[in-house]
Amino acid sequence: MIRPLFLSTIVLLAGCARSEEARYAQVENNQLPALNEMGGDNEDLTVGTWQTGLEEDRPVLEFGPVGAAARFSLGCDDRRNLLLIWPGAAPGGDLPNMLLQVASETRRLPVVSAGGTTPALRGTLAPNDPFVRELTGATVNIMVRVGDSEPLVMPPSPLIATYAQQCAAGEVRGASASAGNSVEPSGSVNVVAGNVATTNAQ
Questions:
Q1: Which structural domain, as residue segments, surrounds residue 177?
Q2: Are 154 and 45 in contact (CB under 8 A)?
């Protein structure tokens, strides 16, 4: 009688151990998706920073790797319109639209082929266009795409609001007329930390 009772006890204990192992394995498997989601939108960001610069003697706000050609730029024309500039030659046939997205807000803009030293496609937002507020007040990533091209996913930056405000106020002028202009000659936003860094004019 003792031996069968002893064997039954061992079988029960082994069953409990397997049940306990299965319970812990299930808990770990339930946690894996949450761990895989860590990193969020930063994994989709295009490599680059927001930097101020000059394009044909006018201050512009550029996005791209430091020391390399800009992937996207914001400019300002004489009518104080905000220009959205996508570098590259125009494709053959009809020009594509430029798609802008900030959170759930989207806008499609017609583009024109812009001449100059570097060919580009250019969309325009009037100073009172509601989408200007979406860009300048963005707290999430900004996506821009032209036609079937690979989209750019850029971080928000306070430099965008500063530049747009100066454009609307008529403070963005050619280099020869911009002495004392409050647009900084250079600056960047750290993509990872989101910190603004500017350098003073030499």
A1: 42-199
A2: yes
